[in-house]
Amino acid sequence: MEITTYVDNLWVLMAGILVMFMHPGFMLVETGFTRAKNSVNIVMKNFMGFTVGSITYWAFGFALAYGGTSLGGFLAYGNFFLEGESLTYFFQVVFAATAATIVSGAVAERTKFSAYLLFMPFICGIIYPIVTHWVWSGQGWLGDLGFIDFAGSGVVHMVGGFAALAGIKVVGPRLGKYDENGNPLNISGSSIVAGALGVFILWFGWFGFNVGSALAAVNVDLASIAVTTLLSGCAASISAMSTSMISGKPNVGMTLNGALGGLVGITAGCANVNNLGAVIIGLVAGFLLVTASNYFENNGVDDAVGAVSVHGICGTWGVLAVAIFDTTDGLVFGGTSLLVPQLIGAISIGTWAYVTSFVAFKIIDALIGVRVSREEEIAGLDLSEHDSTAYGDFALKN
User: Fold this and answer.
1) Which domains occur in the chain, in start order?
2) Looking at the whole model, is its pTM more than 0.85?
3) Do residues 166 and 361 lie in contact, with contact meaning Cβ atoms separated by under 8 Å?
4) How far apart are the C-alpha atoms of 359 and 110, rounded to whole Å?
């Protein structure tokens, strides 16, 4: 094996480790943005979701994505209970677990722990791997169409975001989120400091997410991918903060989620847009984040952490933005060849993720029910689901 191959493989392995480190970031965002009485439940969902999802992806998820034999460009077949291909598996499994954990925060504070774990084999073993095959396998129908998603605005974030929307639709809003007239009420989280730390950790890991998706380190301009990733996140946080100020003072939750929305938005095109394009993508993502969050909240969609807006809506924007800002074939550079593939890809991925996840949640609901009882929700899922508290008696009052 040549030295360049060793260097490439080492970088991909290290990037995968960075992506894995995003999971404590997700855990902190979710615990910080929700109430203390549900913190243990969120820790357990994030931790066990990663472990169950990884085993599932090893058993059959990887086979459906990269198994060797493609069935009409829709899914792969072969190498169940993975042997070999360790580097590809490791880098891909942390992406699969990322798509899954997006759902956790959206349906927080009212969903059974067992129901969430039952959903993991669906998303890590079937829903996400099939989309992966469409786009990244080299055999999938979207890839053949010319669809571009460098690091996963669609493959990872749209899948997680629209799966989260399906889960919210099945489980319903939290108690106390809406008054008798259907107007949304504020439910404060336990620690904005923890949430902010989580966002910084996610941002740190995102450099592995995007830069690592080059799948090489030698003869690749990795720094340019890092810069577009950075600029979009920064621009989106400024945009989200500014947009939130239209109706009052700068909102910290919107500002933090705005940065995440910008990171999601640039993920599809991070290697294919210039710096100005990255800034514009981030500015639009921040505005969309605030607008979508307010729209969903005002229309009965109780997303506890804003996951649908961050990942679903900004992920869709990221996929479509490639057709506009790609420096080779983007609309602003006179190209039109990406308009149809990116639109078809966005519609297909969003529809697939929502419909299959909705069906999966309905099946789980019919089998064991997805929602805890009213009494259990009021007491907090830490006590009712795990007989524990994260912060002692303090949690019982929050």
Assistant:
1) 3-397 (1.10.3430.10)
2) yes
3) yes
4) 19
Which residue in the block uniquely carries the two structure tokens 């099939």?
130
Measured between alpha carbons, how far is 293 from 235 in angstroms, rounded to an integer?
Answer: 18
Is the distance from CB of 102 to CB of 160 less than 8 angstroms? yes
Q: Reduce the DSSP state of residue 150 to 3 states and report it.
A: coil
Residue 208 in contact with residue 152, Cβ under 8 Å? no
Give the span between the Cα atoms of 21 and 50, in whole angstroms. Answer: 11
What is the spatial distance between Cα 132 and Cα 127, in angstroms, rounded to a whole number?
A: 9
Q: What is the pLDDT of residues 265-316, one digit of tens each?
A: 999 999 999 999 999 999 999 999 999 999 999 999 999 999 999 999 999 9
CA distances (Å), origin 279, targets 226, 241, 285, 287: 13, 15, 10, 13
Structure tokens at 182: 């259907």
Residue 182 three-state SS: coil
Q: Mention every residue, 6+ apart, whose C-beta is less than 8 A from residue 15.
A: 91, 208, 209, 211, 212, 213
- Tens-digit pLDDT profile for residues 343-361: 999 999 999 999 999 999 9
Rounded to whole angstroms, how far apart are CA atoms 348 and 147? 11
Burial profile 298-332: b = 16 or more Cβ within 10 angstroms, e = fewer: eeebbbbbbbbbbbbbbbbbbbbbbbbbbeebbee
Residues 179-209 have pLDDT tens digits of 999 999 999 999 999 999 999 999 999 999 9
CA 252 to chain centre: 20
End-to-end CA distance of the chain: 57
| Per-residue b or e along 358-386, where b marks 16 or more CB atoms closer than 10 Å to that residue's CB | bebbeebeeeeebbbeeeebeebbbbbbb
pLDDT, average across residues 19-34? 97
Residue 129 is which amino acid? P
Nearest Cα to Cα of residue 320 among 284, 352, 292, 290: 284
